[in-house]
């Protein structure tokens, strides 16, 4: 998974015409990669309960393997189902990547729906900067047409978690 995160970070940098290691440098040599296996039991009233409430991820990005459809992203006042593609890794941008890209890549609000017919399992790998590492928008993404949207932040994941517990989004705490 470390190789996947490195390739992903380099590809994102290259797609933005940046030096390919710029995001890896912000994540640091001891970037955190945490795995979480998530089990959602079937529910007779899936319209009455969410598998996971609407939120954004406080990480750089999340690598997700899912065995069933259930993940939805919110865009333009509407929820969209993320299709399940067998043997594929779904990559979801997190708040810290939105900060590093000065808002070019967005951290989408997403949720997980319950299923009335079967249990659901997903495996998520959360990739975040090393503890104590300060991150901020890449200089190459800040100019007269695109002013700095975010300030430099350190240990953003902790701030994100505090807001998540209250059902709120934390990205505004990093606004420039």
TrEMBL record:
InterPro entries (alphabetical): IPNS-like_FE2OG_OXY (IPR044861), IPNS-like_sf (IPR027443), Oxoglu/Fe-dep_dioxygenase_dom (IPR005123), Plant_2OG-oxidoreductases (IPR050295)
Protein name as it appears in the record: Flavonol synthase/flavanone 3-hydroxylase
SUPFAM superfamilies found in the cross-reference section: Clavaminate synthase-like
Keyword Heme among record annotations: no
Pfam families for the chain: 2OG-FeII_Oxy
Fe2OG dioxygenase domain residues: 29-129
GO molecular function terms noted in the UniProt entry: metal ion binding
Keywords tagged on the record: Iron, Metal-binding
Highest rank taxon of the organism: Eukaryota
Keyword Iron annotated: yes
């Amino acid at each position: 998974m470390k190789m996947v995160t490195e390739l992903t970070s380099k590809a994102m940098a290259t797609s933005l015409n940046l030096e390919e290691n710029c995001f890896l440098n912000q994540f640091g040599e001891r970037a955190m990669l945490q795995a979480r296996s998530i089990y959602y039991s079937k529910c007779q009233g899936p319209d009455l309960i969410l598998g996971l409430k609407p939120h954004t991820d406080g990480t750089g990005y999340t690598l997700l393997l899912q065995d069933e459809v259930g993940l939805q992203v919110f865009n333009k006042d509407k929820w969209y189902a993320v299709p399940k593609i067998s043997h594929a890794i779904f990559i979801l941008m997190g708040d810290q990547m939105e900060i590093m890209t000065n808002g070019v890549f967005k951290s989408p609000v997403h949720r997980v729906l319950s299923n009335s017919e079967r249990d659901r399992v997903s495996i998520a790998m959360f990739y975040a900067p090393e503890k104590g590492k300060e991150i901020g928008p890449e200089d190459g993404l800040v100019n007269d047409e695109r002013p700095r949207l975010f300030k430099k932040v350190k240990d953003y994941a902790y701030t994100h978690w505090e807001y998540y517990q209250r059902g709120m989004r934390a990205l505004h705490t990093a606004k420039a």
